[in-house]
Amino acid sequence: MPDPSAQSPANPDLDAMLAKVLGKDTAPAPGAPDAPARPSADIEVDPSAQRCGFVAIIGKPNVGKSTLLNALVGQKVSITSRKAQTTRHRITGIRTVGPTQFVFVDTPGFQTRHGNALNRALNKTVLGAVNDVDLILFVVEAGRFNLADAKALSALPPKVPVMLVANKFDLVHRRGDLAPWLRSMQERHPFAEFVPMSAKAPRDIQRLFAICEKYLPQQPWMHDPDDLTDRSERFMASEMVREKLFRLTGDELPYTSTVVIDKFEEEGALRRIAATIVVEREGHKGMVIGEKGEKLKRIGTEARQELEKLWDCKVFLELWVKVRSGWADDDARVRSFGYE
Q1: Residues 156-186: pLDDT tens digits?
Q2: Is 60 assigned a ligand-binding role in the annotation?
Q3: 103 burial level (CB within 10 Å; 0-12, 13-18, 19+)
Q4: Does 20 appear as a known binding residue?
Q5: Over the stretch 112-135, which tens digit does the pLDDT of each residue have?
Q6: Can you give the pTM of this predicted structure?
Q7: Is 63 annotated as belonging to a binding site?
Q8: N or C: lower Cβ tally within 10 Å for the chain?
Q9: What phi, psi does 109 have (nearest 5°)?
């Protein structure tokens, strides 16, 4: 891991950072492509010129971390929804750009409510991810900072360089008003860099790669250049079902619902999957199944289509719904459902 004191100043030049926030020096060089291309696996890069390192993406729930990870990887590897606590696991996304391989780690939003076994496990995942990385991207909404942001910021280790990513910058109408906010943020933490951006803008993603690259050590790549994630297909199947569950039930269904894969079989270009949606109350079961089973059918159809697109193969998906009262506050059951 590089020495952060050698990589970034303790007190960055606020004038330069303000220039970025006020709209200067935010675009890539003229003629630059909108997004970096993924290198072909048959293109060799001299190992002595390679860089590789871990970049953790940290922030409060629902601030755009998973959207950012998917944009950085160039394909969907982390599920998204408007419901808080959507991301529950340490998700690794891999992107190789030129001689540099970025290993991005998306984490659950740092939990400040619901002190149950599930949320204790989620916070443990966050804390475990940030102590062994080369760079941290601390994601906030541009111009905003509340108690949940402060709690997430307080969890960061002191010896890892932290970059402030001001997401949703495109929604800020009066950029000059951000100057006091930026100064207050620098008083809260000695950020190595300030990056105003939108996770949905390809040119901003390209610029973020260039900024992050210098913080990664020179060392051989850890993964094949075509790899997207180190997570298994079985894991991705459970995540896709859970995403559709949350998206299609909205705020009606409590965040404690989860998905367990009961069967995962590969038959050539076919995947046979059986999964159980676990809810805490009998009433929640009805919400998931819907009238005449239509809601459950739609969840299964959309998850299957997403998986077929991701894997480029045929998927047969069977879903069940079971009630497990109080599972989210039972440490043993939380672990049995795959939460660390």
Answers
A1: 888 899 999 999 888 888 877 788 898 899 9
A2: yes
A3: buried
A4: no
A5: 455 555 455 555 555 566 677 899
A6: 0.68
A7: yes
A8: C
A9: -65, 140
